[in-house]
Amino acid sequence: MRATLSSLSVNKMASYCLTVTRVRLALGTGARRFHVSAAFNAKAKVSMSRFEPDTSINYEKMHENIKIVRSRLSRPLTLSEKIVYGHLDDPARQEIERGRTYLRLRPDRVAMQDATAQMAMLQFISSGLPRVAVPSTIHCDHLIEAQIGGTEDLQRAKEVNEEVYNFLATAGAKYGVGFWKPGSGIIHQIILENYAYPGVMLIGTDSHTPNGGGLGAICIGVGGADAVDVMAGIPWELKCPKVIGVKLTGTLSGWTSPKDVILKVAGILTVKGGTGAIVEYHGPGVDSISCTGMATICNMGAEIGATTSVFPYNHRMKTYMEKTGRGEIAAVADQFKDDLVPDNGCEYDQVVEINLSELKPHINGPFTPDLAHPVSEIGATAKKSGWPLEVKVGLIGSCTNSSYEDMGRAASLAKQALDKGLKCKAQFTVTPGSEQIRATIERDGYTKILSDVGGVVLANACGPCIGQWDRKDVKKGEKNTIVTSYNRNFTARNDANPATHAFVTSPEIVTAMAIAGTLDFNPETDYLTAANGEKFKLEPPTGDELPSRDFDPGQDTYQYPPAESSAVKVQVSPTSNRLQLLEPFDKWHGKDMEDMRVLIKVKGKCTTDHISAAGPWLKFRGHLDNISNNMLIGAVNIDNDAVNKVKNLLTGEFGGVPDVARHYKANGVNWVVVGDENYGEGSSREHAALEPRHLGGRAIIVKSFARIHETNLKKQGLLPLTFADPSDYDKIRPDDKISITGLKSFAPGKPLTAVIKHSDGSQVSISLNHTFNETQIDWFKAGSALNRMKELKE
């Protein structure tokens, strides 16, 4: 069978996969078991996915690397160490120290969502390479705006984004990248269903890539420039992560869901508590969580700044892989199970313990995902804080919570309400995570139940979770409350309204609150009133972990890259306002940076949403100059507590942040941004680094950085620097000039100096730290990592 598969053409392989799916639908799970047992033998090579028959999983290589590293370190290894070190480029000589050294790694594959894939593919085109070196995919999920309903919104997105979709499809075909068309589903759900498996290392251009940790994979969110490195076959650098262990005991039951685990962990560790670390779940409680539930927990680990999160391989993962047509992979994983679980006696840098039997339903927010409340207490807290109690909209789905199990448990509550003659008091939306989930829940009746209770089924896409929501029920500035099963709830993120109080919780709690219509409804204790006046309580939600029949794959939405692509043309119109070919950034001039202006001194939280907003700006993600018009328009200026209003120190007038930056650049004036703690938390979007570089920025000076953003800044030739003394933040005034000295002797571990010149003629010098290594310093000197790649090619 393997030889036959390897010889199939791309078109024949597509036909084969479709035929197998149809046979399985007709015959049920028995057909799959027969296929797996017939095709698999212990020494056969097993493909990484059904879409890539010429690839193979290499557990043997990972096993050998683990043996080498364990021998060198002479200690038990955590699971995350096994997978990460198992992908080292040079395990025999790599210096390994958690939290200090930089690892050179060889990830197995790359995944890109459409909003970030535009810039990633533009950079890959600039590299001059003919084809990607590792299996890679593009997923169209970010550009579909929620307006009316799934079918209508998808059709409108195809029309509005035709130019971008055509670019991504042809670029994928040209350079060997698989293309998932709009309507396929959210990138992380597609990865879980098709590409993630125990022990794989995958990097994705989205911060919630860690979702794949629910299948025992190390999946890490990165910027597009990192993706280009891996697609180019260059070893990828990652600071050796620390490992935070979360020990789970007890058993989930009743109203408590997997989402409550990460909501609790976020409350404990905060939005920066996981920075520089992998969160590794372990303990006897793990087995009470479904595979998709584990993915939910790993997905939202991005909100605590973690590099990624991971669970050990177990029977729940095996069952999920078998149900999604990957029994062959599960059978091989069984043989290497010792490499897919932590060693006995391994040590963690920090341990958090959670008893699942005692864990209560949680809801986090508003305005930050780490403000955790038990559902039983949120009503009183809201009243005390002045938060609106009426729930205007309940939204379930998203990449975090759109599994078959999630939808089933929500539907079980909706059915109870319908049986009592009730519908949702709040507006209610449902976002399926993938075409497979949409088709299966429709077949099994969940969609009808959720629609009958008042739900509007949206497209298989990100939608309101990332601000792609044409919301009409409230005016901008109107104070209101929404509850979602999403992962992130920063100010104005979902609907561009800074007065919207967004809370994140489980799909079950969202559904219950949407039915009740109020934030202070606790389904464990509170009663609803049926249509006949009878008081009743909702029974705890129930739902099958996986469908009893096979999944219905729905429509075929995958485009295979052709084996021969020389005739494929990738066109970018010079007059397009959506796409723009990239020009190289300028190299370092070899001198210190003198008399730079402070463009803005940011007050408080500054996420990548503040630096490069999503929502309506997503349409410009492939056009650097146009997208730069949103740079830092959401950041609060400490000088006047206003957003997008800074003083132009050349003219004395106030203007928008991007406008003032453009004026400085046009007049040859370099500038810096000054920021607070955890600067750049949130999305992996590298536009938050590209835009400052494009508009003349040279350095970002803050108290601390989020991991992905710091790396993105380095990749684009900027200087991400931190105050050696955080209180030095207070020494910088908005009208200062700043010089950064010591660049001629720029070296790893050696601080730089900032000379701050005040407008009154006085000046002060402060020390600035950095995390650059030798390779990254070469990026800075070359002007960007892409420039450096070209230098090495020449």
Automatic annotation (TrEMBL):
Q: Where is the Aconitase A/isopropylmalate dehydratase small subunit swivel domain?
A: 596-725
Q: Which Pfam families match?
A: Aconitase, Aconitase_C
Q: Which cofactor does it need?
A: [4Fe-4S] cluster
The identity of this protein, by name, is: Aconitate hydratase, mitochondrial
Tell me the pathway.
Answer: Carbohydrate metabolism; tricarboxylic acid cycle; isocitrate from oxaloacetate: step 2/2
GO MF, one annotated term = 4 iron, 4 sulfur cluster binding
The alphabetical list of record keywords is: 4Fe-4S, Iron, Iron-sulfur, Lyase, Metal-binding, Mitochondrion, Transit peptide, Tricarboxylic acid cycle
According to the entry, every stretch annotated as the Aconitase/3-isopropylmalate dehydratase large subunit alpha/beta/alpha domain falls at: 81-517
Superkingdom as given in the UniProt entry: Eukaryota
The main place the protein resides is mitochondrion
Q: Where in the cell is it found?
A: Mitochondrion
Q: Which family does it belong to?
A: Belongs to the aconitase/IPM isomerase family.
One example of a Gene Ontology biological process annotation: tricarboxylic acid cycle
- Kindly state which reaction or reactions the protein catalyses: citrate = D-threo-isocitrate
The beginning of the lineage is:
Eukaryota, Metazoa, Chordata, Craniata, Vertebrata
